Each structure stands twice: as structure tokens, then as C-alpha cells.
Fold:
Amino acid sequence: MSARPGIARHGALEGRIVACRACPRLVAWREEVARTKRRSFAGERYWGRPIPGFGDRDPWLFIVGLAPAAHGANRTGRVFTGDRSGDFLFAALHRAGLASQPASVRPGDGLELTGCRVAAAVRCAPPANAPTPDERARCLPYLREELALCPGVRVVMALGAVGWDAALRALAPPRPWPRFGHGAEARIGGVTLLGCYHPSQQNTFTGRLTPAMMDEVLARARALADGAPEGAG
Structure:
């Protein structure tokens, strides 16, 4: 019985996210991409709307990415689904025991996350993967509300500097402002913010982020959640 109010609140938030039209530039871009499509996906119907979070409704690990990919989540309707960044991330989550399978190409293909939830700092696909400061600020309340609906979160893992910045603002950060870095940590109340390079092709194809590096960050997240002392892991 106690889980039902939480499910209803998550559902209400997801409904408001999907219906959001607060940023005219992002609305125009996501819908134009959904109309014109990429040739390789010409036969598919694009989602073309904002993307809610996905995964466990009360996780211990909450992952914050940048924004939906134009032909990834903006096409499939699920965060990190349908692009190579998501392929890299879900494979790592599977190795860490947080995902039911190592790959996912569309909602409904069997992927489930356990103990983990994934969301984006900005919920609409932005031109050139670059949301403006105003767009990031308008989307921040959604992340803040989603985190509040997950009281069991012990670690927030930020993928890239934009995810780090959004997570800090959502968590009411300490001063001085903690700087992003791969493996960086910041304790905020009862939550640890943990940095990881974003699994973009720019990072994974150049070796700036390797599978082993992401595995190490996820192992550190697990150790933090289990109460390991600082510096352990």
C-alpha cells in the first residue's frame, strides 16, 4: 500500500515532463528532428517530446546525464535508449548488477534497472547537444522533484559537467562549489555526488572514458552506498 502514493507521484511528474513546452527553441528543435528523421530511422515514429527519468522508483543510485540525443531518446522516448552513449552506459550497469541486460534499443525490449534510476539534466534534445543556461534552469525543478521522490538515494552519479552542475543545484550544494572531474566526490547532506565522464562517442571513441573507468566509478558508488570509509574502494 505504501508504494502506491509514490507510484502516483512519479506518474504525475512524468506526465508534466512529457507535456512541457517551456523552452521554445528546444520544442522547435525536437519536433523538427522528429518530422525530418534520420534516413536510417525513416520508417520509425519518433517520440519528439521531453524524456522522463527511467528505472527504479526508489533507487540507491541516481544517474544524471546531459540531455536526450536527437536520434536516440528523442526517437525512442526513453533516456539513453537508442544511441551509443546508452549502449555504453547500459553495458556498464549490467556489469555492475544494476541492469537486467547489457543492451537496449527501445522501450519494452526487456531492460529493467534495479537499485538505479537514470535521468537527464535537460529533458528535451537540444541543438548541438548544447542547452543554454536558461534552458538548463527551466528544467532544473524536474530533477529536483524527481530526486525528492527517491528518498532512498545515497549516491548521485553525474555524467559530465552539465550533469554535475544540475545535480549540485538540485541538491543545494555546499560552498565553495565542488568542481567536476572524473571520480570527483562531494558530500551533500546524506548523499554523495560522484563524477564520471559522459559516455559520449567523443569520450568513448578517444579512450578518455573506457569501460574499466566507468566500472571503477560504479564500484565506488556501491562502496559509498554501503558505507565504505572515504578513500576506500
